Amino acid sequence: MTTRERCFDEMTGVDGVVRPPYQTLSAWLAETPPEVFERKSREARLLFERQGITFTAFGSEVGHETLIPFDIVPRVLSAAEWSRLHAGLVQRAQALNAFLDDAYHGREICRAGVIPEAEVVLNGQFAAVMQDLDLPRRIHAHILGIDLVRVDEGQFYVLEDNARVPSGVSYMIENREIMMRLFPRLFSTVSVLPVARYTDELLTTLQAAAPRTGDRAPLVVVLTPGPYNAAYFEHAFLADEMGVELVEGSDLLVDDNKVFMRTPQGPQRVDVIYRRVDDAFLDPLSFRPDSVLGVPGLVAAVRAGHVSLVNAIGNGIADDKATYIHVPEMIRFYLSEEPLLANVPTWRGARPDERAYIVEHLAEMVVKEIHGSGGKGMLVGPAATRAERDEFRARFLAHPDNYIAQPTLALSTCPTFVDSGLAPRHVDLRPFVLTGDEVRIVPGGLTRVALTDGSLVVNSSQGGGTKDTWVLAP
Amino acid sequence: MLSSTAANLFWAARYVERADNVARVLEAALRIALITREREKPQVWESVAAIYGQDATARSRPDGGTLEGLLQFMCFDRDNPSSIFVSLLAARTNSRAERNNLSREVWEGLNEAWHVCRDAARRPMSEDQYAAFLDRIKAQCLLVAGGVQSTMLRDDAFCFLRLGTHIERADNTARLLDVKYHILLPGGEDPGSAVDHFHWLEILGCVSAQRIYRRVYRSRIEPWKVAELLILRADVPRSLCFCLQTVTEDLEHLSKFYGTRHEVHRLAGALGARLRYDRIDRIFQVGLHEYLTEFITSNAQLSRELARNYLLET
Question: What is the C-alpha separation between B162 and B174, in angstroms, rounded?
């Protein structure tokens, strides 16, 4: 089965006629000689290299930095398409935040019989330390990365919510910077909404997450695991753009349940920590005792209400693949609205009837680990050999509770510059949703592209690339 | 600013300065090689390593006692804490973590210095190539210094960079002067002989002070004048007095920025005052070696106190 014959192309739809948002781009692609694309692609690579915009793939040699391939053909969304996505994203972010607050308080949604309580409190990501803690504005997921895919003109699906430490936003911003440098004239012919104000919006969101500080302006820092982390470039980039300190655990100390950073002037009070460190490493007193990335006493300071973590601890209960199934019900329960963005139909290995269906249809489905990420440990049925499927089936049946399955979607494609010239490649989209005093979404997001012909896996750790994402002005 | 940032900047500046000074001393060694008799050479090379307290290690190497061995050891040895390679690697590691706090010129100059050194370390070099390499390192370090001077905001970050530079420079100048204690004159030569004269001239050359000397004294090279120039003259940019004066200024700026004073201010003031009001004949009475040894100790104590007061090192 090849997915391409039936799948929707972002530029030419299903019938080969150029869709309206792509009119200008398509003309530009047609009149630009291929050598220019080659030259500009090389230039783009040089620019990324010189600026050190790199990524450290997990498991690779320490200090081994690689570039995420950048494709110079942008992905375009019309103003109308974006406004529909925008409304759906706002709704989803509100529901997820309402769920997180409820899950760590009275669990009304469980009392109402919508989600079994065991699924919440027995989830490995449930953080008992968060129980009954009233966060400022009751926000837990200040920064959400919501992965969307498209299958036809009108149908987008949410593939996954990322409510812990979503990354990739620096590429959204840098991809635009590079495109504007490489093709200034193209931008004068199309009106593309800017993305550069993301870091301002992020700072506003972080400040809005602060506990009460009285007359003092809240002090925000970015907490990184350090230069060997895969996303270190992004941590440094965001801190620099916001003009706040980039700290490691050893730069912070907790005294009397308050957090301070060590400065030459003495300890300085910290109010908001945008942490890019996973829950398990945040505080050796509460989580992994061997963690050197965290700050002893940090969790107690959070519980005392003296510092805010962004995102909050324990958000994993809202974004794993088991909870995902319940998001449409959450939207109905908390907001009394119908979901504007659909979920992909999903079968659970944990349910005996659905388990049998999965086994029967393994060749057509994508099967994922509930707690997996980055495209690791998953099976793409149609792309797998019989032997791979047999091996996976055994693994699945040994621990069926750990898996969910979805139909293999005919992800939309977008023209992409590859060795043989322009060719369609599958794409997804990760917009970033900020929630503070209000919900803010910079128009666009990170478009990831599977560079291998026919591949559906877009993760950068698996050879995916990125594209600039254009939202056209209304 | 974070204490860890201040520490990284301070140490980055110290290591660049150390690499620069080692390059200068090795250039002098290459010139001294030209007039040294074969059988006396090993002792001269060892005395160069002795400046950095590395004479024992240098002697124990299979190529110990040769000029090439010395150059290899002081330029590229990864286990020699004073080699140019180790200094530039440390400077680059410290500054890479602080790219956000450095101007682009400073970071790129520093990064380039490290790349020059790393590339050179990969292939064997002749004496000529060493001369070109040392020249390149000196030029690159000057570029970093110029970048700091002309592109950095005058804030606390700037102060910590300058403090690192001048504390390290004072240490290096003191060690360099002390080398005359280690280089015993070859048998039969008297102090004041042509060889002795040449050594003093080279010491001046290391710190770019030959012309300065002639301008200030308008006389032939005399040891006590060289010492006076490099210890007590406040207008010579590599003298101990000049370095301590700059250190005191930067500490004053910090106390204004932060509104606090520490033990390090008292130490720097005391050491600076001694340099300003001392006399060279008294120093020679005490003994130049004894005087310099004491200075090096006090300067190290100053650096430790600075770390304790500002960088939160324990």
Answer: 18
